[in-house]
Amino acid sequence: MGRMIDGTWHAGKMTEDAADGAFKRQDAGFRDWVTADGGPGPDGQPGRPAAVGRYHLYVSYACPWAHRTLIVRALKGLEDMIGVSVVDPVMLDHGWTFARDHGGTGDPLHGADYLWQLYARARPDYTGKVTVPVLWDRETDTIVSNESSEIIRMLTGAWDELGATEGDYYPSSLRPEIDAINADVYDHVNNAVYKAGFATTQAAYEEAVEPLFATLDRLEERLTGADWLVGGQMTEADIRLFTTLVRFDAVYVGHFKCNIRRIVDYPTLEAYLERMLAIPAIAATVHLDHIKTHYYASHRDLNPCGIVPVGPALPWAGLVEPIR
Ligand SMILES: N[C@@H](CCC(=O)N[C@@H](CS)C(=O)NCC(=O)O)C(=O)O
């Protein structure tokens, strides 16, 4: 854990981001776009053209934000068009590393030892956090984007003419509704578990955990009688909720103290989670060993001895494979 200042790595603690006791997530620093023909992205700036083999993803199997990108890459059949490197799940003083101790891939592109070295390569005076996912452009040898919400939009559409699998996870007719649910789920679910977990005051913890469970209660109702959150079809809103739900009982209940209820206590949310896990392309992106090892062994300010719990026994554990 730590951050870069003017291109140099500085070690630090996760809870240092909790200035007044409340965890604040930093905005991503690289926000370019890949588009089908290299035309402007949604920001109006010139894009980079989609191509086979040109772009590469750096991910952690543990990270819910990176997980979104792996799911869309798999659903869109982009495995042969966009390569992936997987960091080691344990993130300590050097931040994310390319150690191979837990079955990570290393960095075949550059032979880097640490992810921060790629940030320095992309921007020698970079200041900020060193996060996954990273979408890398091999042709210009730099980072395109480190913002997962934007990377999944690129993967959804830009490679279609190059042979990606059909499937639009951000269809234009559903965008207002998807945007609304995404905003709610980001604030009160995806990021709320971190706000609860990294809070350093009782008040900041309770301010995160109460809306989290109020929102899970509402989602339980919303999904009763509906397979998907929006429009009767799977959209990015489902993918974004899924990556938090799938980690919840294994990690967030214990490690982040989000323990008012578990997902297994919500019959509809549990069925929804298992509906997504029944899709083989999605199940293949879930690796509970990396998920548990990352959180419990990395956040030593929360769990000083780094012991990774053996449980819980999850009803769907047989649908997913460990890495080692
Ligand atoms: N806005 C980013 C957030 C990514 C993020 O926070 N990733 C975490 C892992 S789950 C990370 O790499 N953290 C490293 C750190 O905070 O030092 C996105 O959604 O892509």
UniProtKB/TrEMBL annotation:
Name the UniProt record assigns to this protein: Glutathione S-transferase family protein
Native source species: Sphingomonas mollis
A Pfam family annotated for this UniProt entry: GST_N_2
Membrane-crossing segments per the record: none
Superkingdom: Bacteria
InterPro entries reported for this sequence: Glutathione-S-Trfase_C-like (IPR010987), Glutathione-S-Trfase_C_sf (IPR036282), Glutathione_S-Trfase (IPR040079), Glutathione_S-Trfase_N (IPR004045), GST_Omega-like_C (IPR047047), GST_Omega/GSH (IPR016639), Thioredoxin-like_sf (IPR036249)
PROSITE patterns (UniProt xref): GST_CTER
SUPFAM superfamilies for this protein: GST C-terminal domain-like, Thioredoxin-like
Sequence ranges assigned to domain GST C-terminal in this UniProt record: 171-295
